[in-house]
Write a structure and sequence with these properties.
The chain is about 65% helix and about 5% strand. The chain is an alpha+beta fold. It has three domains: about 20-175, Globin-like, CATH 1.10.490; about 210-330, Alpha-Beta Plaits, CATH 3.30.70; about 335-415, no CATH class. This is Transcriptional regulator.
């Protein structure tokens, strides 16, 4: 079978002066024979390279792409030695090998490219040995022909694989970007209650909509470089809560939407430990809910908690919707919430965080001094002393405004001003 037409004299205008004329002549003869292989040898080449991965042999499209790449690569290599005998052969990044690589990447078989080229190289070198032994060459010339072309073939395959690998990385990147965009669109359709085939959506997302869902939003201020740690941190959070098949959506460069499957109890301490290494990353978590409606509701809760944290410029890293629902509602209109906090707490709003935490813990423990002291790891007398100070700073008696004071303290707790108060406490 002929792979190339009769060579023209212009091919021979560039030669390597280090090679003897007889050696150059022998290389040209061998290259010409290599351009005219038998159908049987081509079939052997295809069988050997396709056998690099069993999945190739069972797919006619893949097998055809490998075969086309084999022939084009052979023509390029042999023609180069016809044109410039013994000279280095430039990498071949023509349409055939690039198409083969693209198809393999899209089928998840990109790693097979290396084996295909190396096996093809070995089969072609064996044929070169057969060709050389039929040429009128002396033993010295025979050895030179074998060594020179073997090295040339190895360098050629190295260069070609390097070029194809670069193209494959671009293909991987494009595929990944396309998959991320498609995933977000599907999720947005579900959240917006657009008509969606749920079974098909589940296949594309790799996530089932049945069962319970716990949604989370993980983000970082876009001005911070720490957003580059988002994906790693997101994976670590999923591991920490025991979610083996989470759904992660790239909502923005610095924001990830996440759904944990069938996780009914998220350990806040474990989540906080994960985020310790990335102090500028934050997470808001919704409640667990079932089915498609639960998928939506938990996500909306996580968004509500996130919006509250951003609105209040909170420096706290973890917010559970259950814990902040009341504060989120109260602080939707900052002017009203500020008035409520000021009128309820009076001078106590400017007290240090130690006093505020003490009073809030006391109220949460149903105004039981013994339990509150135990929770705070302080002596009961210390607690009572702090409560006396609080009573003097509050504009109205605590026993008449307990609920209002607790709500105001919770709102203040999530405010960014809490961070400044904590710094003042430490300085004191």
């Amino acid at each position: 079978m002929t792979l190339h037409s009769t060579p023209t004299t212009e091919w021979f205008s560039v030669v390597d002066s280090r090679l003897a004329p007889q050696t150059r002549d022998l290389i040209r003869q061998g290259a010409w024979i290599a351009l005219n292989p038998s159908p049987e040898w081509l079939a052997e080449l295809d069988r050997a390279t396709v056998a690099a991965n069993p999945a190739l042999a069972g797919d006619p499209t893949l097998a055809a792409a490998v075969s086309s790449s084999n022939r084009a690569t052979l023509v390029h290599f042999a023609t180069s030695h016809l044109r410039d005998p013994g000279a280095p052969v430039t990498a071949y990044l023509g349409p055939e090998p690039l198409r083969m690589a693209r198809v393999l990447v899209r089928r998840g078989l990109g790693a097979s490219v290396h084996d295909i080229f190396r096996i093809g190289q070995n089969v072609a070198l064996q044929r070169w040995i057969d060709i050389v032994f039929d040429l009128p060459a002396t033993p010295y010339e025979l050895r030179e022909l074998l060594n020179l072309v073997a090295k040339s073939a190895n360098d050629f395959v190295d260069a070609t694989l390097a070029g194809i690998s670069r193209q494959m990385k671009l293909e991987h990147s494009e595929l990944a970007q396309g998959a991320l965009i498609e995933r977000r669109k599907i999720v947005e359709f579900i959240l917006a209650r657009e008509p969606v085939n749920h079974k098909r959506a589940e296949v594309r997302l790799g996530y089932t909509l049945a069962g319970s869902h716990t949604a989370a939003v993980i983000w970082c201020d876009e001005s911070d470089d720490e957003y580059r740690m988002l994906d790693r941190t997101t994976a670590a959070v999923c591991d920490a809560v025991g979610s083996t098949q989470p759904l992660t959506v790239l909502a923005a460069e610095a924001t990830r939407w996440v759904w944990f499957k069938d996780i009914t109890d998220v350990d806040s301490d474990q989540v906080r430990r994960v985020l310790e290494e990335t102090p500028k990353l934050r997470i808001a978590i919704g409640t667990s809910a079932r089915g498609v409606e639960g998928f939506r509701r938990s996500h909306q809760q996580a968004l509500s908690a996130q919006h509250m944290m951003v609105r209040l410029r909170s420096r706290q890293q973890v917010a559970f919707f259950d814990d902040v629902q009341m504060v989120a509602l109260l602080t939707q209109k900052p002017d009203y919430s500020d008035d409520f906090i000021t009128s309820t707490l009076g001078a106590f709003a400017s007290a240090g965080s130690v006093l505020r935490d003490t009073l809030l813990t006391y109220i949460n423990e149903q105004c039981n001094a013994a339990r509150a002291a135990q929770q705070l790891y302080i002596h009961r007398n210390t607690l009572l002393s702090r409560l006396d100070t609080a009573q003097r700073l509050l504009p109205r008696p605590l026993d008449r405004t307990t609920v209002r004071v607790a709500v105001a303290l919770e709102a203040l707790k999530w405010s960014g001003s809490q961070e400044q108060d904590l710094s003042n406490d430490n300085m004191a």
